[in-house]
C-alpha cells in the first residue's frame, strides 16, 4: 500500500448526501477479482446515460476537474453495501483523499486498507470547500496527515485552513503504508518461531 503523508491536488465537488457504494461502483461491474480496472466505471450511472453517452453536466465529466485527486462530498458518504470495490474504483480513478462531514464506517475502514484518506471536517467547512471548488478555477488543497491539516493557497486573507482528527492506529497505518497483510508480516519472526515449535500434523498423509 502506498504510504500517505502529504498530498496536494485538484478538488472535485460532489456535494451530495448519502452517496452509497452502488452509486460509486454499480453492481454490474463487480465481476473483476483484481483491484484495478474499476476507475472507468466510477459513478457510471451518473456519468453516462443508458446508451453510454457521457453527461456533460456531471462533475467528473467536466474538463476543469480533469485530474482531480481530492473528492469533496456531503454527509454519510459511502453508505450502503460493504463492497470494497467502491474504494478500488475511487483509487483507480486517481482519488487519494475524500473529504466529507461523515462517512459510513465500513467504507472508511476499506479506505484505510487501500491507502485512501478520509477527512472529516465540519459541515460548514466542507460546504465552503465545495463552493470554492465550484467557483475557483483549478482549486487545489494541501492535505497533511503528519500535522492533520487541510489548506489551500488563496492569499489576501481568503485562504481556507482546517484541522481534522484521526485515531493514532489508522494514522500510523496510512503514514507507513501498512495494510492488513503488511501489519501481520511485521510479526514474521514470531510467526516463524511459532511454526517451528508447532509443526503441522502430518496425519493427513496416511
Task: Let me know the average pLDDT.
Answer: 91
Q: Kindly report the CATH topology.
A: Aconitase, domain 4
Q: What is the total domain count?
A: 1
- How many beta-strand runs? 7
Q: How many angstroms separate the termini?
A: 42 Å
Any idea of the CATH class? Alpha Beta
Strand order of the largest sheet: 4-3-2-1-5-6-7
Characterize the structure shown.
There is one protein chain. This protein has 8 helices and 7 strands. By secondary structure, it is of the alpha/beta class. A 7-stranded mixed β-sheet has the order 4-3-2-1-5-6-7, sandwiched between helices. It is globular, with a radius of gyration of 20 Å. The mean pLDDT is 91.
Can you lay out the helices and strands and say which pair or pack?
Blueprint: E1 6-14, H1 21-24, H2 44-47, E2 70-73, H3 85-93, E3 97-100, H4 105-112, E4 117-120, H5 123-135, E5 140-144, E6 149-151, E7 161-163, H6 168-176, H7 180-185, H8 188-197
Parallel strand pairs: 1-2, 2-3, 3-4
Antiparallel strand pairs: 1-5, 5-6, 6-7
Which properties best describe this structure?
single chain, 206 residues, alpha/beta, Aconitase, domain 4, 7-stranded mixed sheet, globular
Amino acid at each position: 500500500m502506498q504510504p500517505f503523508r502529504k498530498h496536494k491536488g485538484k478538488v472535485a465537488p460532489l456535494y451530495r448526501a448519502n452517496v452509497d457504494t452502488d452509486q460509486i461502483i454499480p453492481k454490474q461491474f463487480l465481476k473483476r477479482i483484481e483491484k484495478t480496472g474499476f476507475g472507468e466505471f466510477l459513478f457510471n450511472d451518473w456519468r453516462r446515460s443508458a446508451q453510454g453517452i457521457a453527461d456533460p453536466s456531471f462533475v467528473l465529466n467536466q474538463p476543469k476537474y480533469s485530474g482531480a485527486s481530492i473528492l469533496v462530498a456531503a454527509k454519510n458518504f459511502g453508505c450502503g453495501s460493504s463492497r470494497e470495490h467502491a474504494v478500488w474504483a475511487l483509487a483507480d480513478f486517481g482519488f487519494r483523499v475524500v473529504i466529507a462531514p461523515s462517512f459510513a464506517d465500513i467504507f472508511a475502514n476499506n479506505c484505510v486498507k487501500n491507502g485512501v484518506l478520509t477527512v472529516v471536517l465540519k459541515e460548514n467547512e466542507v460546504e465552503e470547500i465545495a463552493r470554492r471548488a465550484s467557483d475557483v478555477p483549478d482549486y487545489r488543497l494541501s492535505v497533511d496527515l503528519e500535522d492533520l491539516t487541510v489548506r489551500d493557497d488563496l492569499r489576501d486573507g481568503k485562504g481556507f485552513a482546517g484541522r481534522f482528527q484521526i485515531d493514532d492506529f489508522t494514522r500510523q497505518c496510512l503514514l507507513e503504508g501498512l495494510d492488513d497483510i503488511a501489519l501481520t508480516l511485521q510479526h514474521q519472526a514470531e510467526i516463524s518461531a511459532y511454526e517451528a515449535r508447532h509443526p503441522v500434523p502430518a496425519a493427513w498423509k496416511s
